[in-house]
Design brief:
Rossmann fold; about 35% helix; about 25% strand; six-stranded antiparallel beta sheet; eight-stranded antiparallel beta sheet; 26 strands; alpha/beta; 3 domains
Amino acid sequence: MCGIVGYIGKREAFPILLSGLKRLLYRGYDSYGFALTNSKKEIVCFKKPGKLDDWEPKLSKMKFEGNMGIAHSRWSTHGEPSEVNSHPHWDCQKNIYLVHNGIIENYQTLKNVLEKEGHKIISETDTEIIVHLIEKFYRGNLEKAVMEALKLLEGAYGLAIIHKNENRIIAARKGSPLIIGIGKGEMFVASDAAAILKYTRKVVYLKDGEVANITRNKFRVRNLDGKKVKKEVEEIKWTLSQIEKKGFKHFMLKEIFEQPEALENALRGRLRQGRIKLTLDINVDSIKKIIIVSCGTSWHSALIAKYLIENLTKIPVEVDYASEFRYRNPIIKKGDVVIGISQSGETADTLEAIRIAKAKGAKTLGIINVVGSTISREVDSGIFLHAGPEIGVASTKAFTSQLITLVLLALFIQQEKGGVKINKKILKELKDIPLKVRDILRDANRIKEIAQRFKNSRGFLFLGRGINFPIALEGALKLKEISYIQAEGYPAGEMKHGPIALVDKDMPVLFLITKSPTYDKIMSNIQEIKARKGKIIAVANGSDKRIRKVADYIIEVPETEEYLSPILNVIPLQLLAYYIADLRGCDIDKPKNLAKSVSVE
């Protein structure tokens, strides 16, 4: 989950490393560090716990000389955030410096061996043993030493390594994203293109088991057997301006307001002459069962996909947490399709679930935002969201883009499976969804007023039924991950089986009660809360007069087809979570203990 950036070229490395690291803080921000080689062939290292933002004014005044260096922003796994546990790490002689994203599972065994051989390991991290392993194998060639060390590692890694006597960066990848940026007389290494987009759009994506030897003018890639690997140079299509805040206070708020455009991009070219146009390497008629694997917010979109696909196609759908799927020996048969949903395309558990499914003979499909990501390269077919870069840790526009893409997928399967002509009303509503999202966003100040009323609440309940039950889960997740208020999402019908015990005059309960076959059932649930003096917030259609008699606060959303209602209903919940967190003074784009792309298990 950590962020890595490296530079080698003619320019001063430090400003480039600092700029890149600032764009990677969504990957982790509890400590950071730099290591640079100067003209005296010395490596100068500076690292600290805490947030880079707090130290940046002092860092800007410091003089770090050198044309080659590596930098790191950490999300802690092994060892608390501290100076000694921060990256970069070095060997006993302080010749080799290394930054790492990932987890080494057999580090304790390796640590025991290294310490018996006399290596002094000073941190609590799993990372430090890697640099001592490289030291163990070093015989004047850093690339060879790295490759020997990697053969002993079990786990995941994205690595950038430098040696004070060698004018090159060695980069290696297994399970953690890493790219090479190609400039004129300079080269870059990064966990994410956002870190280097200011300097180049030309990149090479490393694959698992590949090691890159990078100098200022060229690079070469080998596998762990030492064989050269031919790599294609690709061009990043999105621009630097797409990842700037553009006057918004936080990336999350910017990305909430970018949703109409993101939804339009997800639909573009996929609705033609009353038909859904998708290019998939899957024979729809042969599908026996669909299994969807994902994590976090993407798991909520998977739950909605289950409603959509089963109702429209009658194909049975299972939804699994990817972290559970990979360890339960899943039953997969010929004709099964496994769908992985991941914004980043690098989610470690989802990636491994996809690999297990392929090994068992299933066809695989990815719903991915990041072009060139590992999952997008490993699945049989993929549908890109085209939502643009999402920097805020709490996913917003990627989630709604997933939902509209999953609607397209369900309609496509229905269309291809039986030659069914898609309902024209659904197609019209699909085209109108971006406009209706814009209508909701215009009412953001009303939602901010409600947030002011409940910013100090000790807890929250979110309740919905049917296809909107997962939106209740998503609303609760958004609130707790950025405001740190304990929030729970439940099916409204389950409220009386436990959660109702929490309800009193101080407990806000948000209901999703837009037009649906379960409307009357949800209204009964509201009455149960009303009888216990709970404060009722209703997300409802503007034409609904009944809800005005029972709800304390109403957030209006436009009417649409039930299958599409989750896309609209989640927008107020995103805004409510954002405004509550902002009013509480929370660091919204960098919520504590979280990171954007979970590329470790």
